[in-house]
Design brief:
Blueprint: E1 4-8, H1 13-24, E2 28-33, E3 58-62, H2 68-78, E4 82-85, H3 92-97, H4 99-119, E5 127-133, H5 156-175, E6 178-184, E7 187-188, H6 197-209, E8 216-218, E9 224-225, E10 228-229, H7 230-241, E11 249-251, E12 257-258, H8 259-269, E13 274-277, E14 284-287, E15 293-297, H9 315-321, H10 329-352
Parallel strand pairs: 1-2, 1-4, 2-3, 4-5, 5-6, 6-11, 7-10, 8-15
Antiparallel strand pairs: 9-12, 13-14, 14-15
Helix pairs in contact: 1-7, 2-4, 4-5, 6-8, 6-10, 8-10
The structure holds NADPH dihydro-nicotinamide-adenine-dinucleotide phosphate and guanosine-5'-diphosphate-rhamnose.
Function: Catalyzes the conversion of GDP-D-mannose to GDP-4-dehydro-6-deoxy-D-mannose.
InterPro entries: GDP_Man_deHydtase (IPR006368), NAD(P)-bd_dom (IPR016040), NAD(P)-bd_dom_sf (IPR036291)
GO biological process, one term: 'de novo' GDP-L-fucose biosynthetic process
Length: about 350
């Protein structure tokens, strides 16, 4: 019998990498996707298997973390060995605009899933992974951050995720469930959503290089993050569920760069050297070669409360899970630029033929 995994948030960045990883390991993978008015399965279309054929290992179920009866039904039907709870309203800035929805899906959604496991009588069978986050550390109490660093959430998103973190710990202690929190630091990839800062930058730099866009507007250039590659991080999720005992782990690279560093590295990768002038809201990134202003700060992207610095210490994951990241910062930038250059080249062709290209709003 193949092991069965159920993934919430299967249509997201991590859902796509994890599905591919588990299918390669020989799992039968079930994913929960939301009904949307347009297709939302771009990231997993290459994994799709026609349900009319035999030996199908990848199954999609309609569902939503705000609907407990639906979660109970799917869990009862699938009876998974492992559940990975990746679904969330995952954008920190958007959580200031939709705080109640963020709490409903990210905090209560986790509770609904844990209760569904209990109600279906699967507490002893199912291993549960909760997508916790370095955002829990928020206003920094200690550098680098470990599993023991105190939390200080700085957004409705982080406040919702702190509930999810503790309810996962509580179900582990109260019901003896195999439940783990992966405290993952930022991880990126060519599949990263277009409004997260790294993807916004690699996409814009590629389009600027090809003349499809004039300028990139960003918020806080001083924020520092520990950026890794999503493909490496999903392996850590799986490893956590293969251990003898359920524990919580920090997953990070142990290296930190500023948003400004990411911008400079990205433009360099497309062949443009940037020079920085001005300070705060007046700061600009200028093309060294011709003086053209390519990057500007727009305060609309500032957050009411910001997380200035995140740097993880992945020692526990390295020693206990034998996990370490394979992709470093320069390779990550290169990989994302390569993919976005390809996209920009397609858009250039389309626009040369007189058609309009897709637009994104952030
Ligand atoms: P994405 O935003 O790319 O994906 C989120 C997924 O959740 C999508 O499939 C989305 O569906 C789904 N979703 C959102 N709301 C609901 C809901 N109410 N019910 C069911 N599904 C829902 O996030 P990532 O893949 O980057 O992150 C995965 C998880 O890890 C998230 O929980 C995130 O908060 C957490 N995390 C991410 C980190 C990162 O750096 N990427 C770091 C630490 C934690 P749809 O496609 O329809 O929108
Ligand atoms: P983050 O990621 O908030 O860390 O959450 P994001 O890429 O959105 O921001 C990183 C930092 O960049 C600054 N920034 C900007 N951010 C965005 N999105 N757009 C901009 O124009 C911009 N300019 C500067 C931000 O202020 C911030 O400091 C991500 C998500 O994946 C969460 O779900 C996850 O939990 C954490 O990473 C770990």
């Amino acid at each position: 019998m193949k092991p069965k995994a159920l993934i919430t948030g299967v249509t997201g960045q991590d859902g796509a990498y994890l599905s591919e990883f588990l299918l390669k390991k020989g799992y039968e993978v079930h994913g929960i996707k939301r009904r949307a008015s347009s297709f939302n399965t771009d990231r997993i279309d290459h994994l799709y298997q026609d349900p009319h054929e035999s030996n199908v290992n990848f199954h999609l179920h309609y569902g939503d973390l705000t609907d407990s009866t639906n979660l109970i039904r799917i869990i009862q039907e699938v009876k998974p060995d492992e559940i990975y709870n990746l679904a969330a309203q995952s954008h920190v800035q958007v959580s200031f605009e939709t705080p109640e929805y963020t709490a409903n899906s990210d905090a209560l959604g986790t509770l609904r899933l844990l209760e569904a496991i209990r109600i279906t009588g699967l507490t002893e069978k199912v291993k549960f992974y909760q997508a916790s986050t370095s955002e829990l550390y928020g206003k920094v109490q200690e550098i680098p951050q470990t599993e023991k660093t105190p939390f200080y959430p700085r957004s409705p998103y982080a406040a919702a995720k702190i509930y999810a973190y503790w309810i996962t710990v509580n179900y582990r202690e109260a019901y003896n469930m195999f439940a783990c929190n992966g405290i993952l630091f930022n991880h990126e990839s060519p599949l990263r959503g277009e409004t997260f800062v790294t993807r916004k930058i690699t996409r814009a730099a590629s389009r600027i290089k090809l003349g499809l866009q004039n300028k990139l507007y960003l918020g806080n250039l001083n924020a520092k993050r520990d950026w890794g590659f999503a493909g490496d991080y999903v392996e850590a999720m799986w490893l956590m569920l293969q251990q003898q005992t359920p524990e919580d782990y920090v997953i990070a690279t142990g290296e930190m760069y500023s948003v400004r560093d990411f911008v400079s590295a990205t433009f360099k990768e497309v062949g443009i050297e940037l020079e920085w002038t001005g300070v705060d809201t007046g700061e600009k990134g200028i093309n060294k070669e011709n003086g053209q202003i390519l990057v500007e700060v727009d305060p609309r992207y500032f957050r009411p409360t910001e997380v200035e610095l995140l740097l993880g210490d992945p020692t526990k994951a390295r020693t206990k899970l034998g996990w370490k990241p394979k992709v470093g910062f320069p390779e990550l930038v290169r990989m994302m630029v390569e993919a976005d250059m390809e996209e920009a080249e397609k858009d250039l062709l389309i626009s040369k033929e007189g058609y309009k290209t897709k637009r994104y709003f952030e």
